[in-house]
């Protein structure tokens, strides 16, 4: 049981800040730092206290879904 818990903890994806997410995903910084923009574009994010953090895998999935929507339009 403990070994499964350790594997889960080790495999957990870290949160990143807006700067790292914007740089890694090649997105404009204001998409991630502006609350109205995040809401309008439905960007997946987390509030941790007063900080906003992101998971890169969720941003990648969001970008993929967004590009598919653009292709169908």
Q: Care to describe what's here?
A:
- The chain has about 70 residues and is mainly alpha-helical.
- It has a domain at about 45-73.
- About 65% of the residues lie in helices and about 10% in strands.
- It is built from 5 helices and 2 strands.
- The protein has helices spanning about 1-10, 20-25, 30-35, 35-40, 55-70; strands at about 45-50, 50-55.
- The chain has a two-stranded antiparallel ribbon with strand order 1-2.
- The longest helix is centred in the last third of the chain and has 17 residues, at about 55-70.
- The radius of gyration is 15 Å and the shape is globular.
- The model has no long low-confidence stretch (mean pLDDT about 90).
């Amino acid at each position: 049981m403990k070994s499964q818990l350790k594997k889960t903890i080790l495999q957990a994806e870290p949160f990143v800040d807006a700067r790292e997410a914007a740089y890694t995903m090649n997105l404009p910084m204001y998409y991630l730092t502006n609350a109205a923009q995040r809401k309008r574009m439905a960007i997946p994010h987390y509030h941790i206290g007063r900080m906003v953090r992101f998971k890169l895998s969720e941003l990648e999935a969001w970008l993929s879904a967004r590009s598919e929507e653009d292709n169908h339009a």
